[in-house]
Amino acid sequence: MKKILTLSFLAIALCLGSCSRFHNAPTDAKDARYVVISPIYNEIIWALGAQDQVVGIDLSTTYPPEAKKVQTVGYHRALSAEGILSLHPTAVLHDNNIGPPQVVQQLQQLNIPMKSFSAKNDSFDGTKALIREMGAYFHKEARAEELCNTLDNQRAASLEKVKQYTDHPRVAVIHFGRASNVYLVVGKGSGGDGGGVSKMIELAGGEMAVTSDRMQRMESPEIIAQANPQVILLTDFGYDRLGSLDQIKTLPGVATSEAAKNNHIYRIEENVLNYFGPRSGENIAKVAEVIHQK
Amino acid sequence: MRLMLTATNLTFRVGNKALVSDVSLSFAPGKLHLIIGPNGAGKSTLIKILARLLRPQVGMVSYDDVDVSQASETELAKRRAVLSQAVEVAFPLSAREVVMMGRYPHFGGRPGPADEKIVDDVMAQFDVTEFTDRNYQTLSGGERQRVNFARVLAQLWRDSTSDLNSSGRYLFLDEPLTFLDIRHQIEFMNTIKEMAAQPDVVTVGVVHDLNLAARFADHIVILNQARLVASGTPPDVLTEERIQEIFGVKPTFVGSEESGMHIIFS
Amino acid sequence: MTKQHGNRRLLLVVLAFVTLLVLAASIRYGAIDFPLSEISRAFASILPGHSEPTLDQRIFLELRLPRAILCLLVGASLGVGGTLMQALFRNPIVEPGLVGTSSGAAFGSALFFVLGSVLHISTSVWSLPFAACFGGVVSTYLVFLLARSKEQGRASIVMLLLTGLAVNALFMSAIGFLSYIARDPQARSITFWSLGTLSGANWKAVTIVTTSTIIGTLIALYYSKQLNALMIGEEEATYLGVNVNRLKWIILTVNVVIVAVATAFTGVISFVGLVVPHILRMVGGADNRFLIVGSALTGATLLTLADLMARLVVRPAELPIGILTSAVGVPIFILLLRRRQYVF
């Protein structure tokens, strides 16, 4: 049963969610042609203005909206070597989260240059390092510096704004894991997809209600019940999937929480909360606004 | 070589219960031997042991004076056949395909022209040629049994040129009449009797109907509660006392010039 | 019977022809379309004296061609596996997936992924298939042993299907557990693995699967007459000279090996083994000799068509092939259930 759900979900996700994206003509390129399989890399490339060289992106890249016009090569863990190669890339950029392993092997075997940047966007400093590294790679160093400065300025501004809030709500973040087709609670240690979440919440003046090291499946209502969050955030896909507050309250442990009782359950974009990026500076304020709502 | 089927001290147990207990018998060729007894007497089990489907814990079965437990399956299949009560087929098979299976022990990969001819002949004999291409699953109980009988006969087929003339043939019948109507029951028994009369065939069957046994058998064996109770000709064995004792019903014997002795029960 | 014989022969010839056609289409079309000229240049490039192959030619020789061939072989394995399973259990509603083989193979691969990262086991490309094979063998034998206690007549089919159901559930939840304790990347690999894909095809895989498929099919053909006899019942088959126990073990082993080896390289692909023998039986009858050859060809054709669609529908991305086989297989399965009265 679960398998049927997974199958049908993936089929629908792949088709409905992005049907139009599969038939776009590949972007014209000059010298370099990049297939970029990472939402954060793509966001930075567009921010740097280097997007002309991108001929293929992955399904999970949703920001900026213009990026969706580029041909997609599928879900980052269900790639096809031929599919990528049909775009004739000069290099494949990825953040070490691609699969299946056989396809990675095939690309290596065919001597396709594969590159990951060494900096990681796991913090503000890491993000700036990544922006600079990518800036150097794409010869957009000046623009990279601009982005870093903007990031710093916006962060400072946001932190000022956050000071106006006197409360420190306990926040639980629920994310929908598309590959495993389950709802996940992001923990303080924030492994996996929840990379930036706890830091963002804390910067925004909140407190992570769930203190586990990594993301957990919502199998036991105790996870939420014990944490008793005052605010619950759901990332966009998971929120839309359930559709309404009543539906969301059926998730294990949610109905009895303080957040549910006060209807402090909100939707938030994954690319605002889950990982650090060029817009994280202003995102702090956005997140703060959401969680401090009354 | 003495052509005979011999069973010596057969005992067959399942768990703690003996289904057949210390049974010794011999069956001569050219005669029809029928085993009767109340439900649970062990008749079906005995037939299966004689046909070597089941192995007794104690005792021995010999065909032609040779212990049959050592014989290979394929070799045995060429001279021993069993007509069961009913045969279910899981997939659509034509009646002819079912009959052809009787020839399987006799050819390796594909049936030869001789096999095809034999199948033609036995199907004609049992009047099932019209079902050649019919799906066996769609046939009635009686039609199926005729097809199965044809198959069994095809399996034991022997003509003068066959090189198996030296060994005996063994035909076992495990309540083959159960799903037949009265007309077919009598037709079958007549055919069985003809088959049994051949000098190189030992025929042993299990039937429920005492009247059929009385009318057709040359030799009757009575089993009750896993034990051998009586063995002999119908008049010797089917006495009023014995029938009452074993089957728990009171018999009345009625003679008929045409068809011999009949028994009426009350 | 020569008329039906002749029909069957003709049918097999037509099937073989269709298989070749579909293979040609599979080689030609995909994320990249290879026109005939490009294909012949690709082949020419491996001859001595010719220049090194271009990237596109390498894609053709190292990715497309082995994938097309592997697809044929896997389809054949699954088709034959289905026929053998149905002959063995004398029931048209069984297939290797139902008696635990596929889920066991998937579990073997899942275990390999999780343990491999934890224990840093050498990840040679053969470790995965062997792990899957091991899993498939364990699960199938488990089902068979557990279902063996009540070996009388029809009741054993129910025992088998129910035991298969239970073992499938056991292994699928074991996979769930593994994906739970695994770090995220591993977990995702497992999920995608169990949806089936031909994207990992390479020549080594082709070699292994060719061997298992051909040997397995030849052995099955050798026993096809005995499998026929089994159709009228185990007792009757014994009377016809078949050593039923030995036949069961041999055919079960052949079935497990060919399906597990295929699953090792492509993940769990369902319903091929269920649907293919049904279609063949409807058009050509139940003789196993015909069915084994026919289901190899039909399975090869159907899976190749499915893979072609998987590669074309959302190109340049790919759909997992399990989605397509299920999308077609499930309605057919339900149709079959409703049309016939099955004797359990």
Structural account:
The complex is a heterotrimer of chains A (294), B (266) and C (344). Chain A is 41% helix and 14% strand. Chain A has 294 residues and is an alpha/beta fold. In chain A, strands 5, 6, 7, 8, 9 and 10 form a 6-stranded mixed β-sheet that branches. The radius of gyration of chain A is 20 Å and the shape is globular. Mean pLDDT of chain A is 82; it is low at 15-29. Chain B is α/β, with parallel strands linked by helices. Chain B has a domain at 85-166: Rossmann fold, CATH 3.40.50. In chain B, the strands form 3 sheets. Chain B has a 6-stranded mixed β-sheet, sandwiched between helices. Chain B starts with a strand and ends with a strand. Chain C has a single domain (2-339), classed as ABC transporter involved in vitamin B12 uptake, BtuC (Orthogonal Bundle), CATH 1.10.3470.10. In chain C, helix 3 (55-89) packs antiparallel against helix 13 (288-312) and helix 4 packs parallel to helix 6 (155-181). The longest helix of chain C is centred in the first third of the chain and has 35 residues, at 55-89. Chains in contact: A-C, B-C. Chains A and C meet through helix 1, helix 3 and helix 4 of A and helix 3, helix 6, helix 7 and helix 14 of C.
| CATH T-level topology of the domain at 85-166 in chain B | Rossmann fold
CATH architecture label of the domain at 85-166 in chain B? 3-Layer(aba) Sandwich
**Strand runs of chain B, count:** 12
Q: How many extended strands of chain A?
A: 10
What fraction strand of chain B? 25-35%
Secondary structure elements and pairings:
The complex is a heterotrimer of chains A (294), B (266) and C (344).
Chain A: H1 2-16, E1 34-37, H2 39-48, E2 54-57, H3 81-85, E3 91-94, H4 101-109, E4 114-115, H5 124-137, H6 141-163, E5 170-177, E6 182-186, H7 197-203, E7 207-208, E8 216-217, H8 222-227, E9 231-235, H9 236-242, H10 245-248, H11 258-261, E10 265-268, H12 270-273, H13 280-291
Parallel strand pairs in A: 1-2, 1-3, 3-4, 5-7, 5-9, 9-10
Antiparallel strand pairs in A: 5-6, 6-8
Helix pairs in contact in A: 5-6, 6-13
Chain B: E1 5-14, E2 17-27, E3 32-36, H1 43-50, E4 58-63, E5 66-67, H2 73-77, E6 80-83, H3 95-100, H4 113-125, H5 141-155, E7 169-174, H6 182-196, E8 201-206, H7 210-216, E9 219-224, E10 227-232, H8 234-237, H9 240-247, E11 251-256, E12 260-265
Parallel strand pairs in B: 3-8, 3-9, 6-7, 7-8
Antiparallel strand pairs in B: 1-2, 1-4, 4-5, 9-10, 11-12
Helix pairs in contact in B: 4-5
Chain C: H1 2-28, H2 36-45, H3 55-89, H4 101-119, H5 127-146, H6 155-181, H7 184-193, H8 203-222, H9 224-230, H10 234-239, H11 244-266, H12 272-284, H13 288-312, H14 321-339
